[in-house]
């Protein structure tokens, strides 16, 4: 494999002495990726992928938004480690006068008591955008076609391969969710399949040989491109849960077993509002809720998969993005500054303040709760307003640690990744793109004029390629096995609260698991880069 491309202009000069470019692997909105080999013959990595962060249409090579996404991608890949997720080896940043190489695998950092995550992210944060010209990520290289390339070449995959790829993808995404990371760009183009090629007929076969290939671990999926990945902070989840719990405790006139608890909580909200807010976040007060609503609240407390997070960037591939990511898109505006929050909290600490002055400090966190205040006294309304405002202040203050990088935002949760996996799975087993009826799409492909045009295109394309054209196969959704059809429908449910989560999907009978409606407690480990405020 010889070098056939000149030294890429978007690479830092330091790369010239370290790596030899071989060929382009692809280009996207935020950069380009090249296959390269280390010039150091003793390197344990024969080939690597180099992702250069840049924008061809910008006057600067690295813009503020691009650098922001790059920092997040670096920070996430520094801390995740999974056999189905691409690895980050090093980061190369070039300023006006010099280049800096940060080796992720450098053991000396650990010996000095410095975590590699802290070292890399602090190094990047210490560099001002104005002093950065170029930035490269050195990543693990995985040989093989993407799922999209397999679908483009032969249509619907065989069930053995589709099942194995879906399982490995779910395991990778489940691992990310256990670290409170949303990928937000899951699609066939971002899934590389090692152990095969476009001439491997087993990819589209349902034979015993294909099942044997699964048993012998022939196929391996690697999830790539974390440019849109978003690590969540605990406040993204728990503060909003506290506000929801508060809304369930406002029916102060109801006669139930919680009356004494509510009375104590009301008194606490007047004298010690911060303590009351903390109590509500960790000890929800329930009222005369129906059993379905009570269970939904319990599920929210136990699992964060379906929890919605405000002010997340509205992005991703529209064909694989969950509907809630594209609905209610709005322009992001910071609602409260840190100074106004401090002033508001100071004013709320004075119990003798009037209700009108409190109303001017900040709005009630949720206007839909106003109806619950109608039958309460002035003192009760003031205390509850006080408490609601503090919850709102804390929630919006927590957002300052991770301001959205996109100008437009929406509200959604980690379950958007489940939808993208479901859309990808449907594509794999039917051969039909998302958001298109399988019946309509297959009928269009069978149209004589379309068939002739497609055949001509495939033959002309294959003249310069080593992969001969293959007749595509398709499946109607209603013809899928029951367990596959139900899995696809569950993962792509339009209602995020009813959508099958990634962890539940892994228990599908199709994967040999036992289905269970009760997810139980979902342990989550938040990334250090978020907890320490690095990104």
Verbal overview:
Strand 4 (88-94) and strand 5 (99-103) form a beta hairpin. With 535 residues, the protein is α+β, with helices and mostly antiparallel strands. Helix 13 (338-348) packs antiparallel against helix 15. It has helices at residues 15-18, 64-79, 107-111, 116-126, 147-154, 159-178, 208-215, 234-248, 259-271, 273-282, 291-302, 323-326, 338-348, 355-361, 378-398, 415-430, 438-446, 448-462, 482-491, 502-505, 528-531; strands spanning 19-28, 31-38, 48-53, 88-94, 99-103, 134-140, 181-182, 191-194, 220-223, 230-231, 309-313, 330-331, 408-412. The chain is built from 21 helices and 13 strands. The chain has three domains: 15-140, Phosphorylase Kinase, domain 1 (2-Layer Sandwich), CATH 3.30.200.20; 147-231 and 414-511, Transferase(Phosphotransferase) domain 1 (Transferase(Phosphotransferase), domain 1), CATH 1.10.510.10; 234-307 and 332-402, no CATH class. It starts with 14 loop residues before the first helix and ends with a helix.
Secondary structure layout plus pairing:
Layout: H1 15-18, E1 19-28, E2 31-38, E3 48-53, H2 64-79, E4 88-94, E5 99-103, H3 107-111, H4 116-126, E6 134-140, H5 147-154, H6 159-178, E7 181-182, E8 191-194, H7 208-215, E9 220-223, E10 230-231, H8 234-248, H9 259-271, H10 273-282, H11 291-302, E11 309-313, H12 323-326, E12 330-331, H13 338-348, H14 355-361, H15 378-398, E13 408-412, H16 415-430, H17 438-446, H18 448-462, H19 482-491, H20 502-505, H21 528-531
Helix pairs in contact: 2-4, 6-16, 8-10, 8-15, 9-10, 9-15, 10-15, 13-15, 16-19
């Amino acid at each position: 494999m010889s070098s056939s491309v000149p030294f890429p202009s978007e690479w830092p000069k330091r790369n010239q002495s370290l790596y030899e470019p071989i060929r382009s692997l692809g280009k996207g909105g935020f950069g380009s990726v090249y296959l390269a080999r280390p010039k150091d013959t003793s390197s344990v990595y024969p080939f690597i992928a180099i992702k250069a962060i840049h924008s061809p249409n910008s006057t600067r090579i690295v813009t503020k938004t691009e650098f922001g996404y790059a920092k997040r991608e670096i920070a996430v890949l520094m801390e995740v480690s999974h056999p189905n997720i691409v690895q980050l080896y090093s980061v190369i940043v070039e300023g006006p006068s010099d280049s800096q190489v940060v080796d992720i695998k450098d053991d000396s950092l650990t010996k000095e008591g410095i975590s590699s995550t802290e070292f890399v992210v602090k190094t990047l944060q210490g560099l001002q955008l104005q002093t950065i010209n170029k930035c490269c990520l050195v990543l693990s290289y995985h040989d093989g076609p993407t799922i999209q390339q397999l679908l483009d070449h032969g249509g619907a995959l065989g069930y053995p391969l589709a099942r194995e790829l879906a399982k490995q993808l779910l395991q990778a995404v489940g691992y990310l969710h256990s670290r409170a990371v949303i990928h937000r760009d899951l699609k066939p183009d971002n899934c590389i399949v090692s152990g095969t090629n476009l001439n491997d007929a087993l990819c589209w076969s349902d034979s015993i040989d294909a099942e044997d290939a699964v048993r012998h671990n022939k196929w391996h999926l690697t999830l790539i491109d974390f440019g849109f990945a978003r690590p969540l902070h605990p406040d993204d989840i728990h503060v909003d849960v506290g506000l929801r719990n508060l809304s369930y405790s406002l029916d102060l006139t109801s006669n139930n077993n919680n009356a004494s608890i509510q009375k104590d909580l009301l008194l606490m909200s007047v004298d010690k509002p911060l303590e009351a807010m903390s109590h509500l976040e960790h000890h929800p007060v329930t009222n005369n809720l129906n059993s379905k609503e009570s269970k939904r609240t319990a599920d929210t407390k136990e699992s964060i998969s379906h929890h919605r997070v405000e002010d997340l960037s509205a992005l991703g591939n529209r064909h694989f993005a969950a509907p809630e990511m594209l609905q209610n898109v709005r322009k992001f505006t910071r609602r409260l500054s840190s100074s106004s929050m401090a002033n508001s909290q100071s004013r709320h600490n004075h119990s003798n303040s009037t209700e009108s002055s409190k109303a001017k400090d900040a709005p009630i966190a949720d206007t839909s709760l106003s109806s619950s205040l109608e039958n309460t006294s002035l003192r009760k309304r003031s205390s509850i307003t006080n408490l609601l405002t503090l919850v709102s202040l804390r929630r919006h203050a927590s957002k300052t640690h991770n301001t959205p990088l996109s100008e437009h935002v929406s509200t959604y949760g980690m379950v958007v990744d489940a939808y993208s996996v479901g859309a990808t799975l449907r594509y794999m087993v039917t051969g039909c793109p998302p958001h298109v009826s399988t019946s309509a799409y297959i009928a269009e492909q069978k149209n004589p004029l379309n068939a002739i045009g497609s055949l001509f295109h495939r033959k002309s394309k294959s003249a310069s390629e080593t992969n001969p054209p293959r007749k595509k196969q398709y499946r109607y959704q209603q013809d899928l096995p029951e367990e596959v059809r139900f899995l696809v429908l569950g993962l792509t449910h339009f209602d995020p609260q009813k959508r099958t989560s990634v962890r539940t999907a892994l228990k599908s009978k199709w994967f040999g698991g036992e289905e269970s409606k009760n997810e139980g407690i979902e342990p989550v480990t938040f990334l250090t880069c978020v907890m320490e405020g690095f990104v």
